[in-house]
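User: Watch each token:
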Amino acid sequence: MRHHISLTLCAAVITLSACAKDPEADVERALKDLNVVDESNLNDVMLTVGDPNEAVEYFARANANDPGRIDLQRGLGKSLIRARRAAEAVTIWETVVAHDDVENMDRVELAGAYVRNNRWDDAANMLNTIPPTYETFKRYRLEAMVADSRQQWEKADSFYDTAVSLTTTPGSVYNNWGYSKLTRGDYADAERMFSDALRYDDDMFTAKNNLVLARGAQRNYTLPVIKMSQIERAQLLHTMALAAIKQNDVTMGKSLLADAIETHPQYFEAAVRALEALENNVAN
């Protein structure tokens, strides 16, 4: 009886061994899964904190080694945009959009690449291929910019308003919207938009400079009460001076240039040259 039990156990062990998976295959599969996770993490890093040109090289190599993967193509397209290589980015994003696994977000990225290359009609056509139910901040910001390029002001305002509602950080949108208003000659509204931009991002120097231009266009030659460094104050005084001179308020312009030169902690060459040119014109 005891022998029978032993044989039965041995048979069971043999059966189980035969049915078990190959342990080496399990290890290889686990390592492969781990590599996928590691690669995904590295891709994310290269898209954010990595140097843009290094990211381009990384994704270009990855694409060459594993062609046809849409995630790697997307990474290359985004990296080219970050590296300010917009013309090359268009080619990559066109490849992505032709991929079987294309999504609406890819079409938005291609439209953005077209905008960066001043291909406004191509951007408009690409945005028109996206269903209206696809509502994202980036999509509507681009829609607004395209409408601006065509001087379709009502559409632009509507799209800017929608874009603002779709983000918690609308500073850059308000800055773009303000510049649109500045272009139309709606200086008071432009001033309000630039002030809104700075409410969300008080470090945005472009919005500060645009705000000064909007005030100067209304012949308001006092700097706004906003956060600014000493160097920024000097630069904004210089901008205000140029706005005054453009409107033939030369005496005010000279005074503002002098203030800019005195305010700047270093030698302010641009302001010095502008003031010298003014004084030479007066002397002549």
